[in-house]
Specification:
The protein is of the alpha+beta class and about 500 residues long. β13 and β14 form a beta hairpin. It has 16 helices and 17 strands. The strands form five sheets. Strands 7-9-8-13-14-12-10-11 form an eight-stranded mixed beta sheet, sandwiched between helices. The longest helix has 16 residues.
């Protein structure tokens, strides 16, 4: 379904905006430039972000922890530094991180219920954000230990999709995606262990980058979830996502994976050249049904046609995934078990989490070692596609975003079945450790966001980012914003201002 000005009326479909009101600075790069020019203060931007967070907690519910006093203090310090002539990439810009990321003085509950002690130190990625001058306004909601493509749980309630509050924004980085889509922050970090940045990007009409494994440090963990999970940005534009990626990228001495540096932001304005692009509808083998929703197929087909118009060669071709799922399950479940062991009161964990942790204990040892040893062969098998082709194009998900509660109360087996059916395309790239970018691909007939996924071989972020930026210049997806939603304050319903 194309999205145009005819859908701007009160029909429930997305609105199109051709610009922002005077004084509105919605983009990460835009805010950084305005701060450096002295046309806005960090205190004003941070206060606006905090006010929007407060106004939408009763509806969108994007944040687990908010730092109003600390963030305003940091904003005042950023204003002092700016006035003194200091310039840094994000000096004074408000951003958010996910609830699995350590921020000094805040607990890291990762979607779990119970009392968690505050962390004494920032994680390496937060240290890098602060070194670039960013102000962290809070930590966003994530489902329990990042296991599912929804962001719901007894510890924090339901995080809702700003495009339609009856639907999920995805998961597990759903809080970060909802925060950006609703305009609470210009960009946020998430983590991606089976598509957990790309899935909410697709379902929230955002750009989401899963970088090369190790591109952004996971320290204090040498690696996360046995190497399948990485940290990545969510933003409305490719430029903003690339800027946040550059700021966050880098390694700690204790990291197990340390890829060579890239310049993501430079790639935004680089012509990708004429590329050979494989369009794939095939999902990796899981021995389960994975029907592709017709609206998703139509949207991704439209993206492919746009790529052809831009001069690229596109044809259908399928990667040879083999039985890559046999390597994913041990790594994922062992990772769940390792994280569950940190939880102060494990009796509060979801029954599905306890089941995954038990399975992880069974699959650790020899099974896990064999799964990890198979990675090189899997990279060679799938990587054969990148001889004749430069980029792989797939749907990001097989369906539009489900309604809130669709998966939350299922059994473990039924949750796995439903999750695989809705999101079969993202997780193999976590096993491979390679980069991928989800870009907005339009909307379903019901006005729900859909995404397309650009996938590449090892260290291929610059090409993917250049291609995504070229698509963005043609499709201008950032012009479409979700509707404003009423906010609940002390039991009363008030309008949330834009």
């Amino acid at each position: 379904m194309s999205v145009d000005e005819s859908q701007d009326s009160a029909t429930g479909a997305p609105a199109r905006r051709t610009g922002t009101a005077a004084g509105e600075l919605e983009g990460l790069a835009e805010q950084s430039r305005a701060l450096a020019a002295g046309s806005v203060t960090s205190t004003a931007l941070v206060r606006r972000s905090l006010e929007r967070i407060e106004a939408t907690q009763g509806t969108v519910n994007a944040f687990r922890r908010v730092r109003p006093e600390a963030a305003l203090t940091e904003a005042a310090e950023a204003d002092r530094r700016l006035a003194a002539g200091e310039r840094l990439p994000l000096l004074g810009v408000p951003v958010a991180v996910k609830d699995d990321t350590d921020v000094a003085g805040e607990p890291t509950a990762f979607g779990c219920a119970g009392e968690f002690p505050p962390k004494e130190r920032d994680s390496e990625v937060v240290r890098r954000l602060r070194a670039a001058g960013a102000v962290i306004v809070g930590k966003t909601n994530a489902c329990e230990l990042g296991q599912w493509p929804f962001t719901e749980g007894p510890a924090f309630g339901n995080t809702c999709n700003p495009w339609n509050l009856a639907h999920t924004p995805g998961g597990s980085s759903g809080g970060s995606a909802a925060a950006v889509a609703a305009g609470l922050v210009a960009a946020a970090l998430g983590t991606d262990g089976a598509g957990s940045v790309r899935i909410p990007a697709a379902w929230s009409h955002l750009v989401g980058i899963k970088p090369q494994r190790g591109r952004i440090s996971t320290w204090p963990d040498p690696e996360a979830f046995q190497g399948i999970t990485g940290i990545g940005p969510l933003a409305r534009t490719v430029e903003d996502a690339a800027l946040l990626l550059d700021v966050a990228a880098g390694n700690h001495a204790g990291d197990l994976h340390r890829p060579p540096a890239i310049a993501a932001h430079e790639a935004v304005r680089r012509d990708p050249g004429r590329l050979r692009i494989a369009l794939s509808w095939k999902a990796a083998t899981t021995f389960t049904r994975k029907p592709l929703h017709p609206d998703v197929r139509a949207a991704v087909t439209d993206v492919a046609r746009t790529l052809v118009r831009l001069g690229h060669f596109v044809e259908e071709a399928e990667p040879d995934y083999g039985l890559v799922g046999l390597a994913f399950v041990p790594r994922a479940t062992v990772g769940v078990g390792e994280w569950a062991a940190r939880v102060p009161d494990r009796s509060l964990l979801d029954r599905r989490t306890r089941g995954s942790a038990r399975l992880g204990r069974l699959l650790s040892g020899p099974v896990l070692r064999r799964a990890r040893a198979a990675e090189r062969r899997q990279q060679q098998r799938v990587g054969a596609l990148f001889g004749p082709y430069d980029v792989l194009l797939t749907p990001t998900t097989a369906t539009p975003p489900p309604r809130i509660g669709t998966l939350a109360k299922m059994s473990g087996w039924r949750t796995d079945q439903a999750m695989i059916a809705a999101c079969p395309y993202a997780w193999p790239w976590n096993v491979l450790g390679w980069p991928g970018v989800s870009v907005p691909a339009g909307f379903s007939a019901d006005g729900l966001p859909l995404g397309a996924q650009l996938l590449g071989p090892a260290h291929g972020e610059p090409r993917l980012i250049s291609l995504a930026a070229q698509l963005e210049a043609e499709l201008r997806w950032y012009e479409h914003r979700p509707p404003a939603h009423p906010a609940r304050v002390d039991g009363a319903v008030v309008s949330r201002g834009e």
